[in-house]
């Protein structure tokens, strides 16, 4: 907080000084929509405009634009186009009641040219000054006229549009006319790039952030770039002064330390060459303070230039003394190995539809990221405004910035299109504007490129920047290709579920364990590897969140999903679906993150994501929502146990045991904290669900160095004393850091099944019908693949990957189970209300049953949570009365290969015990033909 206070104090002083030479242009502007592109030919820059808006802002925040219709010309791919024709969406295609499921829906929409016009009075004191028009964030292409004089056009998506008005603007009244066009025109960065797409920040039209005219001396600072050298304890300042300035100028540099101590000033006189470039070396003294994630210590430097006439121009630059580099296959910060624990920022700002330009808003977001154990943010196919860099400097985050492109889905890179040059231009603008920020550690062209010549283009791009500016690291692109010239790789290869894996992924095809890592994947690559967009695990919509959308974006997609759930009679279960699927989501993220931390020599990961992505068909992948608020099923304290700088790890060969086995688990520590951990003991304990300690131990104290794959001992205990089916918690702790895992232990020998009058069968044949007709009991345990109703529902253990609309229904299409753990049918099968590792066997050997094909009144013992898009009532275990008898149906095959499946044996035992008891009294009566119709 002290750093923030000092920073805001210094910036406040600078703003007060700057106000003497600026004219604030925020406020009311005249406005007109130019949907027919008549404004230039009609000289609208010289004519009054009938309407008005307030800037900074967008057309949408000002209520301008068209109503959303089925013909709205969205910017962004729509992979599932069924909304345009499917009967179930007919009610949402009606004029005046449009609701789209693709993304959050703006209250107004406009794509095209719009005009903004404002009168301004230039004071006499500005005579002879160099005047510029500064517009912090524009979307997208701007064209400026002063009075009726054309000034120029700019199209940066990442940096301020600054127009040089020279020294010829006379005192008195002038009119600024601004044309803003948000169409993809001269350059196509890809319609899904988060710099322009409706998937996230919206394709808005307007100007946000600072908006002003400024006056400077004719001899002024055009640019200052600071190059810290922590080894020599100095900063090399590369200063550019007005080009072609004749004569001698005085350059002065002075710096302030993080505690506001002023360091000695340096003053030099220079003869300015045509280039206007001056280089000066500034010593930082012996008591150098470094910047990193743990100690984000910021210096400021005042640079001023003046002439003999006494006029001076000055800048204050905040910077950090740091070196972000690599050592072999790992990243280093100031020579110490670090590990990137990152998430994506995809420009999601639901209230405005465009990113904030104030530091406080970004500090709030980044503080949430830090609290969840992260130290890194990747800006997916966009570059944030200045305030984000300032906030990251203060909080201590390593940023990967991208040049606003996702050259795919209709765009390519390296094929000679205008985007090729634009990327070079935009990257130079980005580095000039934000290059001094210590948080700006990495840069890439953008996301997942396409193009016949993309590899050669991106190789040249990386080499260009490595030679030009060593202050950060560079890679080809987020996703691919892996090239030897990159400082690091950003690839999707190391993760537990790849795009298209479906049920063949690690998490869905292998019984739960924590022994795997990515050693063999990264072995061929000599540079660090960051895993690209790991996770993508979905959770059910939180309909309580809808009230928070009080701005220009409305959750019409949530309204559709809620209505679909209501139509299937399950709206009362919405919160339960959220919590149960959320617990599974966290389990999936834990598996992903720990696999990365277990990989020795790994560079890090980039989650997709810590927060929700509301576009691309609605990807609810966050443990916090689009407002960076928690959802109720986990919090920062729980998440940061397995996602942090220091994390104890365990390599479980499996997570389900029988009590005749030995539990042998190697332990490790990943330590990427600020220092080695000196003389620390590793403690472990195993408790049951009552909190009773069954086993415990301590490994001797030792020094834990920086790094991962650090062996910490091995738990080895016999499980024979665990007599009953049990859920056990294994906790490992070192210093103030603890991590835990839940395992399940079942008796190796169960009583021989004594069904009595219960028929256990996999077929609804004449024998089963006869038992029911005589008033008997039948346990119908269905073979996987035998279902006719619901048999095509792709069910797996994991949560939904990304979302079914964008992946074309990639399995699994379900979100785990929901049950009442106190139900008597589950008394011998320890469980909680959600999917844990003990349900992997059932989900892998089972099928979800469409309950509405059986009876509308059935409440299943174990429910399967369906995709929110379809919201079908699905059951895994349910009961009913058939004829005179009682039937319990298990969608899980409990008979096949059960000797190798302790979970199946235990669940069968529990169900049979329930069926023999008085509690087995099914209330819903179902015709036998309905049951017969379930099976092919």
Automatic annotation (TrEMBL):
Domain Glycoside hydrolase family 2 catalytic: 329-475
The Glycosyl hydrolases family 2 sugar binding domain, residue ranges: 25-217
Sample GO molecular function, one term: beta-galactosidase activity
Gene3D superfamilies in the cross-refs: Galactose-binding domain-like, Glycosidases
Recorded superkingdom: Bacteria
GO biological process: lactose catabolic process
Any Pfam family: Glyco_hydro_2_N
EC number(s) recorded for this UniProt protein: 3.2.1.23
Residues making up the signal peptide according to the UniProt record: none
Any one of the GO CC terms: beta-galactosidase complex
UniProt catalytic activity: Hydrolysis of terminal non-reducing beta-D-galactose residues in beta-D-galactosides
The entry's keywords: Glycosidase, Hydrolase
InterPro entries in the cross-refs: Bact_Beta-galactosidase (IPR050347), Galactose-bd-like_sf (IPR008979), GH (IPR017853), Glyco_hydro_2_cat (IPR006103), Glyco_hydro_2_N (IPR006104)
Family: Belongs to the glycosyl hydrolase 2 family.
Name of the featured protein: beta-galactosidase
């Amino acid at each position: 907080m002290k750093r923030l206070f000092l920073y805001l104090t210094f910036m406040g002083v600078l703003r007060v000084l700057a106000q003497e030479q600026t004219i604030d242009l925020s406020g009311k502007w005249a406005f007109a929509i130019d949907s027919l592109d008549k404004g230039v030919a009609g000289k609208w820059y010289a004519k009054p405009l009938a309407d008005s808006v307030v800037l900074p802002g967008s057309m949408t925040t000002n209520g301008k634009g068209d109503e959303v219709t089925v013909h709205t010309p969205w910017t962004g791919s729509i992979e599932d186009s069924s909304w345009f024709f499917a009967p179930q969406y007919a009610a949402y295609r009606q004029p005046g009641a449009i609701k789209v499921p693709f993304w959050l829906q703006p209250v107004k929409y406009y794509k095209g040219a719009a005009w903004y016009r404002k009168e301004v009075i230039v004071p006499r004191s500005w005579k002879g000054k160099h005047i510029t028009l500064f517009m912090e964030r524009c979307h997208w292409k701007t064209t400026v006229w002063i009075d009726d004089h054309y000034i120029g056009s700019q199209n940066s998506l990442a940096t301020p549009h600054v127009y040089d008005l020279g020294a010829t603007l006379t005192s008195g009244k002038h009119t600024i006319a601004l044309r803003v066009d948000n169409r993809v025109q001269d350059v196509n960065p890809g319609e899904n790039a988060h710099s322009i797409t409706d998937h996230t920040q919206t394709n808005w039209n307007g100007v946000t952030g600072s908006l002003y005219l400024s006056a400077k001396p004719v001899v002024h600072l055009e640019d200052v770039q600071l190059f810290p050298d922590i080894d020599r304890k100095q900063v090399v300042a590369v200063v550019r002064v007005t080009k072609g300035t004749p004569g001698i100028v005085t350059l002065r540099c002075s710096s302030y330390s993080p505690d506001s101590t002023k360091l000695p000033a340096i003053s030099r006189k220079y003869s300015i060459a045509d280039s206007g470039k001056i280089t000066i070396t500034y010593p930082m003294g012996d008591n150098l303070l470094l910047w990193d994630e743990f100690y984000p210590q910021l210096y400021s430097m005042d640079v001023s230039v003046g002439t003999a006439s006494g006029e001076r121009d000055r800048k204050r630059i905040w910077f950090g003394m740091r070196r972000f580099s690599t050592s072999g296959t790992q990243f280093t910060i100031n020579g110490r190995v670090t590990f990137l624990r990152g998430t994506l920022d995809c420009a999601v700002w639901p209230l405005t539809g465009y990113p904030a330009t104030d530091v406080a808003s970004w500090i709030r977001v980044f503080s949430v990221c830090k609290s969840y154990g992260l130290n890194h943010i990747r800006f997916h196919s966009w570059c944030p405004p200045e305030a984000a860099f300032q906030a990251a400097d203060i909080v201590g985050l390593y940023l990967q910035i991208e040049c606003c492109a996702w050259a795919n889905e209709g765009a390519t890179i390296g094929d000679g299109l205008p985007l090729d040059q634009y990327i070079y231009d935009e990257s130079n603008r980005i580095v000039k504007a934000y290059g001094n920020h210590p948080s700006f550690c990495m840069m890439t062209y953008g996301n997942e490129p396409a193009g016949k010549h993309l590899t050669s283009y991106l190789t040249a791009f990386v080499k260009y920047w490595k030679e030009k500016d060593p202050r950060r690291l560079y890679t080809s692109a987020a996703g691919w290709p892996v090239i030897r010239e990159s400082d690091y790789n950003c690839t999707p290869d190391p993760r537990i579920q790849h795009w298209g894996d479906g049920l063949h992924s690690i998490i869905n095809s292998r019984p739960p364990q924590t022994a795997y890592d990515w050693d063999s994947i990264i072995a061929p690559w000599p540079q660090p590897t960051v895993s690209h967009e790991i996770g993508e695990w979905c959770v059910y919509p939180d309909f309580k969140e809808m009230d928070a959308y009080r701005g220009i974006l409305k959750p019409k997609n949530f309204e559709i999903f809620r209505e679909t759930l209501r139509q299937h009679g399950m709206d009362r279960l919405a919160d339960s679906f959220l919590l149960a699927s959320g617990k599974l989501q966290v389990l999936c993220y834990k598996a992903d993150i720990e696999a990365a931390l277990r990989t020795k020599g790994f560079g890090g990961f980039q989650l997709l994501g810590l927060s929700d992505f509301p576009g691309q068909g609605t990807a609810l992948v966050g443990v916090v929502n689009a407002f960076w608020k928690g959802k109720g099923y986990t919090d920062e304290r729980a998440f940061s146990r397995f996602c942090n700088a220091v994390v104890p790890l365990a390599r479980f060969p499996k997570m389900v045991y029988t009590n005749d086995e030995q539990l042998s688990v190697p332990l490790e520590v990943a330590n990427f904290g600020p220092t080695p951990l000196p003389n620390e003991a590793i403690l472990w304990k195993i408790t049951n669900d009552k909190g009773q300690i069954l086993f415990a131990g301590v490994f001797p104290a030792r020094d834990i160095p920086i790094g991962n794959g650090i062996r910490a001992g091995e738990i080895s205990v016999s499980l024979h004393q665990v007599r009953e089916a049990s859920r056990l918690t294994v906790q490992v702790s070192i210093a103030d850091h603890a991590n835990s895992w839940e395992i399940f232990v079942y008796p190796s020998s169960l009583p021989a099944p004594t069904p009595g009058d219960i028929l256990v069968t996999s077929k609804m044949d004449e024998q089963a019908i006869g038992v029911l007709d005589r008033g008997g009991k039948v346990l119908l345990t269905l073979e996987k693949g035998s279902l006719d109703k619901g048999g095509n529902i792709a069910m797996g253990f994991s949560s939904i990957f990304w979302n079914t609309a964008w992946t074309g229904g990639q399995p699994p299409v379900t979100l785990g189970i929901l049950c009442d753990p106190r139900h008597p049918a589950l008394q011998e099968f320890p469980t909680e209300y959600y999917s844990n590792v003990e349900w992997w066997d059932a989900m892998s050997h089972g099928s979800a049953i469409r309950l509405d094909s059986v009876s509308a009144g059935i409440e299943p013992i174990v429910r399967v949570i369906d995709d929110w898009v379809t919201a079908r009532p699905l059951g895994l275990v349910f009961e009913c009365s058939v004829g005179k008898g009682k039937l319990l149906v298990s969608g899980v095959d409990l008979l096949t290969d059960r000797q190798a499946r302790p979970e199946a044996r235990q669940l069968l035992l529990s169900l049979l015990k329930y069926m023999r008891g008085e509690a087995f009294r099914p209330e819903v009566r179902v015709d036998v033909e309905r049951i017969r119709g379930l099976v092919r």
